[in-house]
Write a structure and sequence with these properties.
Length: 113
């Protein structure tokens, strides 16, 4: 599980989201970022179901974008910790890219058999 690069990307996303949740002063945003961190952590353990793992990464990236839309409306001045969920979205993008690459590799090997 840890030898896959997408696991490293997902762990980095969890760390970024957890730090962002700790420093977030508004409770409703803290809950959203914390929930995203927990779902991202759960995504790591779905390594046997790669298509679902890739779809979950896409959903989490969408939630990250929604977080920034809500944040732009609620808080006009952004602090440094507000960038952490966007960093997590970048890590989720890289993880999804690696998951899709693994799935294509497995499908190509299944075709050969």
């Amino acid at each position: 599980m840890i030898q896959r690069i997408q696991t490293v990307w997902l762990l980095l996303a969890v760390v970024a989201l957890a730090v962002g949740a700790v420093f977030e002063p508004m409770s409703y945003n803290k809950g959203m970022v914390g929930a995203m961190a927990l779902v991202t952590l759960a995504t790591i353990f779905l390594f046997k179901n790669r298509p679902f793992q890739a779809n979950l990464c896409a959903v989490l990236m969408g939630l990250g974008v929604v977080y920034y839309i809500v944040l732009a409306v609620m808080q006009p001045v952004l602090e440094w910790y507000c960038a952490l969920p966007m960093v997590a979205v970048l890590f989720l993008f890289l993880a999804r890219k690696a998951i899709v690459k693994d799935e294509k590799l497995v499908k190509s090997l299944d075709r050969i058999r």
